[in-house]
Amino acid sequence: METTTQDGQADDVRYFDVIIVGAGISGIGSAHYLKRDCPDLTYVLLETQETFGGTWHTHRYPGVRSDSDLYTFGFSFKPWVESPIATGERILTYLNAVIKEDGLERHIRYRHRVVSANWDSKRKRWDLIVRNEQLGKDHRFSTNFLWMCQGYYRHSEGYTPDWRGMESFNGQIVHPQTWPSDLDYTGKNIIVIGSGATAATLVPALAEKAAHVTMLQRSPTYFNPGTNADALADQLRELEIDENWIHAIIRKKLLKEQEARLLRAQNEPGVVAKEMISAVEANLGPSVDVATHFTPTYRPWQQRVAFIPEGDFFEPFRAGKASVVTDIIETFTPNGVQLKSGRTLEADIIVTATGFRLCVLGDIAFSKDGEPLNFADTVTYHGMMFTGVPNLVWVFGYFRSSWTLRVELIAEFACRLLKHMRNIGCAMATVELRKEDQSEPILPWIDDQNFNPNYLMRDMHLMPKRLNKPEWQHTQDYFAECVSLPQISFSDPAFHFS
Predict the structure, then answer these.
(1) What InterPro entries would the database entry show (predicted)?
(2) Which residues contact 162 (CB under 8 A, 6 or more apart)?
(3) Residues 471, 168: Cα–Cα separation, whole Å
(4) Is 166-352 a domain of CATH 3.40.50.720?
(5) Which residues contact 446 (CB under 8 A, 6 or more apart)?
(6) Tens of pLDDT along 279-296?
(7) Are 317 and 284 in contact (CB under 8 A)?
(8) pLDDT tens, residue by residue, 310-369
(9) 237-246 long-range contacts, Cβ below 8 Å, gap at least 24?
(10) Residues whose CB falls within 8 Å of the CB of residue 184, separated by 6 or more in sequence, listed in order
């Protein structure tokens, strides 16, 4: 028979002051700040996968690496001491070091998938049903504060368009997100569909063993070739400067450079586009038609730009081990694909580097007092809280800048909020539109003229809404938010405490 505690909580329920969902780079970083700033609060990290790392555990395709420098993609509190662009394996090693240094192992529950989360207004609690995948049974967790760090895409499956004739293809179709560990591509002809950061990583890695790799794209993408080193960091190390100082200095330097680069792209898009295309042309040489295959139609940084360390992506094209085709797939055939132009491409393996399946808040069935909660009906406050949803913070990072920069900004805000609630004796914090906001038009989560990758555009209806005010949207502007988020005042009428 079930018994209850003094507050009416069933004693078989695992209660924590804070529950962090996800043990990837967002969850690990958030736990660090929670431990640092709110050491008296109990907490747990619930992770669906069998180990930590999130993206860096899920993505195991050949050559997987960051496309952001680790001085800014890494944490501000943990120095990065290697080359700026890092392999997935080295990033996992880095995250494991943070877990051990912070003693987070005992706070993480692996193979724990959150099935549902209901806010109970009377008890001021989130009640969670959590599936223990290892034991095949459900557990109940309860918390006053829910911290969502589960990422923005579905880890179990990537996005592959439903092309006509796919079932007729005699070879193997692979998505990078579910790369088979036993896939032998030695001497094979491979088509990689897509031209984003994943394709830019895969093409040179596959070309080492494959007979030939064809990158098939609908339209060209911007690439940013450069050196996988930082001269100032190397100089400071030669001078035996403390690594904490080096990390802080290089981080600030790179952020300043990025701010200037993004400002130029905004103010002089034509000039910046020409510079970027010229750099690609210099790396490719005369054998590739740059005007057709490497000249995008959109503005620089309207979509994320992949950094190409040491120009390695371009080398197989120069060597004839890879080629690029810009066209649209008409149908799959038994031996490859037929294109809209009438051209056919033959392949033994087709890799669909076609992006993610957007997953808003982890496929969890959210409710409020038993009534289903649809986040698409809410307006986002600074892209981290939702109107009418109590005691919940959502981590959604940056696309133009390193994701982790926003993890830390939100973590510091969340800890300030938790301390404020405790100081005023408050059990519930909600944001609502202020009186002057209520006449503002409700807009899609992101302005497609500002940023418009396909994986966001095709599922925009699932996302929360925004207003045409900085505080009621995710601006994707780190350089504004690093000032505005620390200055958020809890006396703002948008906040409701009870």
Answers:
(1) FAD-binding_MO, FAD/NAD-bd_sf, Flavin_mOase-like
(2) none
(3) 50
(4) no
(5) 452, 456, 460, 463, 466, 473, 474, 476
(6) 999 999 898 999 999 999
(7) yes
(8) 999 999 999 999 999 999 999 999 999 999 999 999 999 999 999 888 888 889 999 999
(9) 243/79, 243/81, 244/79, 246/79, 246/81
(10) none
